[in-house]
Write a structure and sequence with these properties.
With 161 residues, the protein is mainly α. It has 4 helices and no strands.
């Protein structure tokens, strides 16, 4: 085998190992993040009686399911926005249109959460509503943000054209 062939094989193996590492790291962050969000909700729910815990989890699961399509649409709109922003010629009207779609989707999601909170509040007593308010005031940090003390830019997902 020639030297060039050996170097190509070694380079290919190294790049494949790097790719596998990136994929495993990405998957582990997603799985770990889901556990964190579920744990955060459980930490709140332990303050509630069992019937209200079930109501809380059922309501949040329903809201998350209703917003599932919005998450996908928001991800796609963000990608389109970034593509417009990084294009050789900036199209302000297209950019503003995509940003408006993002705001509309975010508002729809927040309205669903507000409606769910209203449903819960009607069935909670004052102490339970105080715990719910505390839970809403201290949501888990976004996955991209890292620790609260961290300085510097947030991690961004890569956008491909």
């Amino acid at each position: 085998m020639s030297n060039k062939t050996k170097m190509l094989i070694i380079g290919s193996l190294l790049l494949n190992a790097l790719l596998v590492g990136v994929i495993i790291g990405n998957i582990s962050h997603r799985v770990g993040g889901e556990r964190f969000f579920r744990r955060h909700g459980r930490e709140f729910a332990v303050k509630l009686p069992p019937d209200k815990q079930e109501l809380f989890f059922t309501t949040m699961k329903r809201v998350h399911g209703e917003n599932r399509g919005n998450y996908r649409q928001m991800r796609e709109a963000r990608q389109r926005t970034l593509l417009i922003l990084t294009a050789p010629e900036f199209d302000e009207a297209a950019y503003q249109s995509e940003v408006a779609k993002l705001h509309q989707l975010r508002c729809r999601m927040m309205q669903r959460l507000a409606d769910a909170t209203t449903e819960l509040a009607k069935q909670f007593n004052q102490e339970e509503r105080k715990a719910l308010a505390d839970h809403l005031m201290h949501p888990p940090p976004p996955l991209e943000a890292g620790p609260p003390h961290r300085k510097g830019p947030l991690k961004r997902s890569r956008v491909t054209p």
